[in-house]
Design a protein that fits this description.
12 helices; five-stranded antiparallel beta sheet; globular; 18 strands
């Protein structure tokens, strides 16, 4: 594909997406717009990573969950490497370790390498886990032979790398590989790159392997001034890292979010390593609606409140997480509260934000629905 003269990252993305669609270069899912494209020939391109010495010598590999990287995930499992895959949009942690069943056949390993397999055959990896990633494989929308990379615009790959730096899971020389169609290798003006942008060391396409020799420094950690308060509330593990770095004396001031407006909570925290399958409907003082569709629920039950909790403490937590209800029913003696929202969408969003929330030392139980009769 000819060199791109896009004046913005988005302009380059749109041109590549349009080109791949108009030339029928993509497989499911389509259209490729707003995605890391699953290009035709991606599986064969993934096999070429075996030719890289940096792959052969690795023990722990982090591979993005994108469809075109499925072949690399399978190779890592077949090679008995530790495979780490980021959780979608980092909702429940940084990444999961894929754990195939004992004696898994090749067909089972293929299932484990899919997005569904990642959900079904994995365990969460916490911030305090002793992880040292030897190789990172990321998806891209566009990449240049100099190593400049453009993702789909959400910034998760850049943020994941910065978070791994912060938790000590990567070294300065940890190689980064991207696998793309030949048409995705284009000229990218260096002026478009920012400090938080991730660069790559190797590009693999269906026809070639490019060692970029990129000398541009990779992100040295999380640039908190580029992190929004909204992002912090949506990504629990990011919140945990911020608390850790704040205790270490680092400047963790957020983007356009002065501390005086949104003080960092001192009595609430959200653990990074609780999978949503374990926190969605917890047993205890709250339970989902019985005989009704939880998709239609307009209330959220918050249970396991500390015995000495005050309603103002819960309200403060709700404000900080931007999950303020229309009305709050406080049931202190039962150590719970019922949050009432305008509609089911608002209730579901609030329940998602509150998953894993701690008040004091207590892990709160959060469930869509209503209080149990007692």
């Amino acid at each position: 594909m000819e060199a791109l003269a896009g004046v913005s990252k988005q302009g380059i993305r749109e041109r590549i997406w349009d080109y791949m669609e108009s030339h029928d270069l993509a497989d499911f899912p389509r259209p490729v717009h707003h995605r890391i494209p699953n290009f035709k020939g991606s599986y064969l391109a993934c096999q070429r990573i075996k030719d890289l010495e940096v792959f052969a010598g690795t023990q722990e590999v982090k591979v993005d969950p994108d469809k075109p990287l499925e072949g690399v995930r399978l190779l890592a499992l077949q090679s008995k490497k530790t495979l780490l895959v980021p959780t979608p949009r980092l909702r429940t942690g940084l990444f999961n370790k894929i754990t195939p069943p004992p004696g898994a056949t090749k067909d089972m390993l293929r299932k484990c390498a899919t997005s569904q397999g990642v959900r079904n055959f994995s365990i969460p990896v916490g911030l305090d886990s002793s992880v040292l990633v030897d190789l990172i494989v990321v998806g891209s929308v566009a990449v240049s032979e100099k190593g400049w990379r453009i993702g789909k615009g959400e910034g998760y790959a850049d943020l994941e790398y910065a978070m791994m730096v912060s938790m000590g899971a990567v070294r300065e020389g940890t190689p980064i590989v991207t696998i793309v169609h030949d048409c995705q290798v284009v000229d990218i003006p260096e002026a478009l790159l920012e400090d938080h942008d991730l660069t790559v060391d190797y590009i693999i396409t269906p026809t070639r392997v490019v060692a970029t020799g990129c000398a541009r420094p990779k992100p040295a950690g999380i640039i908190w001034s580029k992190v929004s308060y909204e992002m912090l509330t949506k990504i629990p593990v990011l919140r945990s890292l911020r608390d850790r770095e704040k205790r270490a004396g680092k400047d963790v001031t957020l983007q356009a979010d002065p501390g005086s407006q949104h003080p960092a909570p001192s009595t609430i925290r959200r653990p990074q390593d609780i999978p949503q399958s374990q926190t969605g409907y917890l047993r205890g003082s709250c339970s989902p609606l019985h005989g009704a569709d939880t998709q239609l629920a307009t209330t959220v039950c918050v249970g396991n409140l500390p015995y000495n909790a005050r309603v103002r403490e819960l309200k403060r937590a709700l404000e900080e997480l931007r999950a303020v209800p229309l009305r709050l029913t406080w049931q202190g003696p039962q150590h719970r509260a019922i949050l009432h929202y305008a509609d089911s969408a608002a209730a579901q969003q609030a329940a998602s934000c509150l998953q894993g929330l701690h008040l004091g030392a207590n892990a709160l139980r959060v469930a869509l629905g209503q209080e149990r009769d007692t």
